[in-house]
Structures
1.
Amino acid sequence: MTMLRLPSEVSVREVGPRDGLQNEPPVPTEGKVALIDGLSQTGVKRIEAVSFVHPKAIPQMGDADEVWAKIAKNPDVRYSALVPNSRGAERALAAGFREIEVVVSASDTHNRKNVNRSTEESLEDIKAIIALAHKENATVEVVVSTSWGCPYEGDIAVDRVLDVASRALESGADALTYGDTTGMATPTRVEALVTGTQGRMPDVYLGLHFHNTRGTGLANVLTALQLGVTNFDASVGGLGGCPYAPGASGNIATEELVHLLEDMGVATGIDLERLLLVAAEAEKLVGHELPSQVLRAGPRTRTTPLDA
Amino acid sequence: MTMLRLPSEVSVREVGPRDGLQNEPPVPTEGKVALIDGLSQTGVKRIEAVSFVHPKAIPQMGDADEVWAKIAKNPDVRYSALVPNSRGAERALAAGFREIEVVVSASDTHNRKNVNRSTEESLEDIKAIIALAHKENATVEVVVSTSWGCPYEGDIAVDRVLDVASRALESGADALTYGDTTGMATPTRVEALVTGTQGRMPDVYLGLHFHNTRGTGLANVLTALQLGVTNFDASVGGLGGCPYAPGASGNIATEELVHLLEDMGVATGIDLERLLLVAAEAEKLVGHELPSQVLRAGPRTRTTPLDA
């Protein structure tokens, strides 16, 4: 087996409480707290817990301060908050977060629809956010959304994405994540953007955030693994839909990712059986079936009794 | 982009009318005929149309003769029938099929549950089926099911699968397909079995049949493509479930496969938009939502109007 060169371990970031719940009907604060606390006992090392956005824009995240105050902070877990702008960054820092993700879209159209300003304006704001955060000893990860395509503009040129990412790094970003906002990535596109990044920004701490909107999520992960990427976002149960395609899937499901990786000998540190219990709870929390296949079928190691 | 070495084209076999419908509640004969006829206009070159099994075992396929008699035979399409034993092969040949697939399980336990005899007994029968078919100028493909694991036995050793496959080829089989009956394959397991096959049976016409029960289907396809495999089964809409896991997905969805391949520059000859119309009809036929993500979200090229 010499073809598939895979890393020995990867770091999974659980984004269900934020990216997942943000795209589901609102759930009670206590449910969010229980979800995050359940996740923090699975062995996952990073959880994107909340976002600090205007509650009129995204009512699902209106209780971010309360959620953060109530969760049991597991010292083995790094919790992060996503922010759309300086105001959100100030709130996240004031709440005590020391890991901030700030999002900017490679698509100008998407950025305007999302935060009502141009990509350029967001990049300027990011510079200010980074300065602010570093003063508080917090780190800032820049998430470049629509990195593999925009639901309005269609394809986004690799060079455009690389330019936006480079600008963020020049402004002092500590890490970079490419977001496949509406599941438009495919393996050859992943290869093009990742190798382009490795060429222009060889030292970057790079994460990838795939949505499974068109079923390509795990094939994209496999490609990225072969290119040496070791940081991936996923959401428990596959929580979260696609706002542009009713009924379509959201993030890749954490159980599917862990199941795939562990079977291939790529360690995640996550206890799959424990994670599946949390996924079942997540399903109850949102009140509908979640797209995770491993939640439905069970892991491949779960055999059927012969007399069944 | 030098890492992903992909073939320039692949041959997709549509198995929705057989493997799909066999695992769905029964549908009327006319619906099956319309489904097959719709598929034969999409550009797909191979369709697994029916199976000749005992109607008490699989009532869904009880009208195989009638379906076959009624469909419009597109001369550009190769139609095949799946059979479990000699009796089924005789019926398929009498009906006029000149491409027969015969299934044998690498798992003895699964083979006994499926056809009430040992793998060894099925292999002996296959020898007789091949002789019979070749006399009628028909070809026989042997499908080795549970090639990546058995729902009862768990893992199946690669050597066991290779032994069963070799026996079939020695008996004169014209082609070989490995079936991932309950979606237990992952990329490293695909690599192990495919490279093992290429080592022991370098000249075999090899096809792969993945189920997406645990979300790994397209990652498995990607791995196989990188190893040079160019024949894949898929079912329109992702028709068909998993008999061992209620609610779990069946075959990989043809639209998802075509969408992935075509975007990567791997030609299938299939018109995706036309296929999506057939998938929507398939959904009406079975009366419930099908798992195909591309059916739900549309292809990545389908953008949203800005004022939406």
2.
Amino acid sequence: MLYIIGLGLGDEKDITLRGLEAVKSCDALFLEAYTSILPGISRIKLGEFYGKEIIEADRGLVETKAEELILERAKKETVGFLVVGDPFGRATTHSDIVVRARHMNINVEVIHNASIMNAIGVCGLQLYNFGMTVSIVFFTETWRPDSFYEKIEKNRKAGFHTLCLLDIKVKEPTMRAMMKGVEEYHPPRFMSVNTCIEQLLEVEENKKQNVYNGSTLCVGLARVGTSTQKIVSGTMKELLDVDFGEPLHSFIICSDEIHEMEKEYLEFYKVE
Amino acid sequence: MLYIIGLGLGDEKDITLRGLEAVKSCDALFLEAYTSILPGISRIKLGEFYGKEIIEADRGLVETKAEELILERAKKETVGFLVVGDPFGRATTHSDIVVRARHMNINVEVIHNASIMNAIGVCGLQLYNFGMTVSIVFFTETWRPDSFYEKIEKNRKAGFHTLCLLDIKVKEPTMRAMMKGVEEYHPPRFMSVNTCIEQLLEVEENKKQNVYNGSTLCVGLARVGTSTQKIVSGTMKELLDVDFGEPLHSFIICSDEIHEMEKEYLEFYKVE
């Protein structure tokens, strides 16, 4: 039996009663720890709260050893795979595990929870006015992927808002690790709203299709669903210097066809 | 103090620990009961589970008496407004209450939960490949609103899937009630996947823009997130005769640019 359990967005209290019941019944617990983080709590604290050991499932484990470590075990025992947010809120990884489990005739139960994909509704923009979600990844010297630009263009032409999910780099091996095969990682990095805006403006500067610009109305969000949640609305340029604090950050590019009610709501979060 | 508390999608066990803590602290509890329902449980049973009385907040109460009954009370006491799914998953009503509460300087805290808008990810279609969500309302003799057609067209042209939220009619006053001012309601009605498809095909038949047709790949979903959840994928025509059982139902029109992994996942739910 494999439970895929959404943890919600904040800390240990954001699990559902159904989720906690499932956790209690598990013989082994894995925490997916590379597509998102729980801002309010560590894996160790979460384990103490459950009274159970939690094994960190990093990218390596999930992509190369999931079958052996998680799925084989789930054939005989009850295994819980814990996911920040909703199990299907973000990454394809979780669908992949379910597909593989089903091929192995393992019983799978999904326990849903809040995801950033719906919690962003808290800023007052209506979820049904959002188009396709885009991912903004950290630019490097040699890799500056800008496929999001075309998607944002489609959304804005159709009158949709765009949610931008910002990059997370956890357990990225260092160059030395890759060359010499040793275990050594860069410190974790989480993209800020500010970096996201810089990258967006750089791409607009290159493409010059005027999909958006410094005057486009946007919303920056940090730690949505936690007690330190921060939401600020303003133009892209205005938000460039706002300090959103600790991760995780998200960003919304509003449609120019924004509704009156949505505008009124955003006023509460207007940049000072 | 006003808590807006998401209940999730199934029954009393889908509330989060944080949500339950808030419920316990409330002097008064209202359940929003006209944009959605909890398939697995009634208001009375929910109240027994909490050990508290829950007042039903129907459309009339929320739209005309929210200020007096909910907000004035929240100025002095702790009031909980319970919402099926996530507080911002679906209706503008909830944003409206928050805006009004903020204007009255009432402290508002939102407790998120799963919403149909993200839980549909369970069928294997990736959430970020969805465009704008549309609402399909019951056609009547004289009122056959089809504004969804244009939105589906935009989504499909842009390569997005479309989530269709299906109409719910709860506490709709009868003609007699409206004429004579008495309290009398039609029995509750919930749109089925089948009715949704009939309406969609009728509109295509009239508009003839070939936005979709009987051969378009779709997914019907019922009672998502509950133990009786049913998901079936197939062409619009194939799904026309599938019995999805009890409410609530949802419907997805897939993009023709569906990814390989999404297709593989949908195979699990293929119509027999």
3.
Amino acid sequence: MKPIQVGLLGIGTVGGGTFNVLTRNQEEIRRRAGRGIEVTMVADLDVERARSLVGERARVVADAREVIANPEIDIVVELIGGYGVAKTLVMEAIAAGKHVVTANKALLAVHGTEIFEAARARGVMVAFEAAVAGGIPIIKALREGLSANRIEWIAGIINGTTNFILSEMRSKGLDFDVVLKEAQRLGYAEADPTFDIEGVDAAHKATIMAAIAFGIPVQFDKAHVEGITKLQAADIRYAEQLGYRIKLLGIARRRDSGIELRVHPTLIPAKRLIANVEGAMNAVVVQGDAVGTTLYYGKGAGAEPTASAVIADLVDVTRLHTADPGNRVPHLAFQPDALANTPILDIDQVRTAFYLRLQVADEAGVLSRVTGILAEHGISIDALLQRESAEGEQNTDVIILTHDTIEGPMRKAIAQMQALPTVLAPIVSLRKEELA
Amino acid sequence: MKPIQVGLLGIGTVGGGTFNVLTRNQEEIRRRAGRGIEVTMVADLDVERARSLVGERARVVADAREVIANPEIDIVVELIGGYGVAKTLVMEAIAAGKHVVTANKALLAVHGTEIFEAARARGVMVAFEAAVAGGIPIIKALREGLSANRIEWIAGIINGTTNFILSEMRSKGLDFDVVLKEAQRLGYAEADPTFDIEGVDAAHKATIMAAIAFGIPVQFDKAHVEGITKLQAADIRYAEQLGYRIKLLGIARRRDSGIELRVHPTLIPAKRLIANVEGAMNAVVVQGDAVGTTLYYGKGAGAEPTASAVIADLVDVTRLHTADPGNRVPHLAFQPDALANTPILDIDQVRTAFYLRLQVADEAGVLSRVTGILAEHGISIDALLQRESAEGEQNTDVIILTHDTIEGPMRKAIAQMQALPTVLAPIVSLRKEELA
């Protein structure tokens, strides 16, 4: 049978990896797919560089539209990134009847509903395993492997840059700014790291996973997003003393009143497997009502890990492109006419436990006032740690771990505590999840 | 559309779980599959008990052949287990044109080639996600999620009973016999635990994974199988001192000369994620050339985790049963005409590192003779630990960790060391893998 012909839009890191892995493993892949899969056309603005990468094996053009217009091309792989030209080209490829494989989490988290509807109407597939957690087949696990389950929650380390930074901060006791510079020097963080360190990239991925897990449309604008830039080394140390690690988690959780969708630094018990995921690695924990807890771990970025996911999608599309569209796995796991309009909860309505650090004057009655305020708001205390003040020190740190509570009342309690004259510095508050 | 009709053969633990999860999550599953999936018929010798479980919702019969003969039944789920009647019924179901879902690892590891060929010839699917690692979608990950990769190796904790026992032996410092009794009392081990503790169950699963990973037929008879019954608490302690944990691993590894397929207790670095998988949990590490290291973790047994895998297969079959068989994922991941005849290596040809414990006379020259023998066989030493002998003791333990070596020469070296008059007890040898 004639090989499936693939056109790459963009041959940067992931595009180059995809081309190389497809070439290196072509025999292995053909033995699996029952048919060859070949990149026969590449569009990249830097034509010279693209030509030096692919040699004679594919035609290189500057204009992506030449790829889309080529009737020989079966599948278009979009590796340009961002919401702009990538969106236009994906929509044009769909309109031209091409199947699309993309690693573009930003595009899908923001415009997924429009893109998937266009693909459905045109009878083509948009596959995006590479958009979440790189080489880990988490989209397939959620969409197919766990299809028996009512998913209860997902919690993932889905941004390698921030996990590398947090691992270094903890193991070396360093501050955020110092480690960020080191991460940039080593290539773990980009020159402009904003999307990573502010949690935006993780929120894109969490948005996509939430949609697939709960059968809701992608709603990035409803996600609560906090990064790690304000995290202090002191809190990582205190957390450790209490048996916790701090990770930037993307969390999606089903509640009776709606869906929680949030990205923020989170204390998790050090004994959990996911707490021990270090460096730039990714891991996602999925809790299903039948299967219980499952975890998926691997590299979340990089040329070949991401290419692994892109090519798995190419194999899937190759297998299914002649099948009745009704037999395909729906883009968001649930049939398009069966999506739910379950609301995404406001952060004030979220239920979670808290870690609080208060710098207080070392005098009688302080703890009683602080705990009194928490009690007024119905917030119960799980653990309390008061650092002994050193000789001559006038103030001390009080660390409080609460039980699960609603965030709105917690914020009010924190504001009241902050107003106490004996509370000497801004209160640090972090969310804590047991993940059990 | 009319619901897909499923017939269960056997409604024990997993069958009951499957029935309950399908009933409880029917709406969620229908929203995903686009079609209802209903158990309409159950065959079980204990008709009364089966009726009390399913009530009016399914017809209960004693004779499995009534299910197979029913033209309304689309998919037969075999949950009887074993090689005997289960094999006959699976072959009959295939002959009757039914798709089959099974959790029967023993059957597939031994008779898989015959069964898959019959299914191919008849144009039906045999799905078996539940046969390996319970609720973890590892078959799907290997067969589809990692299809871009040349798989290098797989190492899995794929038997919950033995992992529970090893976890207890380590954390409580107890001997095997004591913990086995405790495991039986708690329901983690069966009354006749032979298949679990002798490594046979793990070898069934490793055999299936090896076939899928490397595109070779299932060859259970070629697997090297060792259990945990001879493991001593002392070696778990020494391993810990050296920074290792002992786990019963199923290992499949590609070498230039063939495939290693083996199950045995294995020292692995304590810092690896899989070393921290405790209790009855399962985990599988897969190393692919593009994706690098990935890990999959979850419950490997139990009613609902296993049902999660059975039902995921039901959804997959529901989606694909009207599709062209050429578009389906091949049973063993590779197209049936593209399987390789790569040999399974004899254990003597396997390459691995070793942990040796020698009880030796506490006198001059012993170490020199022992290390001399290793050197003669070209085996290099990675680490050596000599326990200080207590006051008045005449003998001491010497622990040696070797670098990777071929097992054949290692066995010869061990025999020579054993013959030394200063070696006072049977030498303990365990394999060690870095899993990196």
4.
Amino acid sequence: MLERTTEMNLLYDFYGSLLTEKQQTLLELYYLEDWSLGEIAEHQGISRQAVFEAIKRAQATLHDLENKLGLLKKYHERRKIAQELSQQLERYPEAKKTVEPIIARWLEID
Amino acid sequence: MLERTTEMNLLYDFYGSLLTEKQQTLLELYYLEDWSLGEIAEHQGISRQAVFEAIKRAQATLHDLENKLGLLKKYHERRKIAQELSQQLERYPEAKKTVEPIIARWLEID
């Protein structure tokens, strides 16, 4: 089975630009458009097995990039710390109101 | 001339793990150890011109990765926002004292 999870979507968000154009097309159809392997095969004029193998290789590449750069791990760490920051600021409502938009911009950088 | 700047050092920090082992060795000697091209050539048993070309190609790869992933750009954006956050918190010394260690941990994630 191929993974079809939120994590794979996030990995694709982070590293998709490093894949080949062909790999990007396949993953977009599979993950973002939610097509079946059969539908992609018919549309691309290749076998279902070829689609399966290509997506599996692209997934392996995304996991390899995550092992090397850890952007998804860092993304989760930042979100956790932002939560902690918000909780700590509960005690200082005025300060919280002032810095909350800045924290929101910070999180958007991911 | 090859670039030998803080920016190249940062790019290597961010993307070095995606280069080949050979490229990593060359860039480490050139940027981190501050060896000359001639010294590297002698140590590696290749010509000075070959070292030059290899480092130039590795630099191009680092720039290409930055164009695609923008980690260095994001790094600078985060630092700018952290500064803004610190400035805004000047008015709330107690809140600042509480959240400063959390902000420090946030920045360390980069």
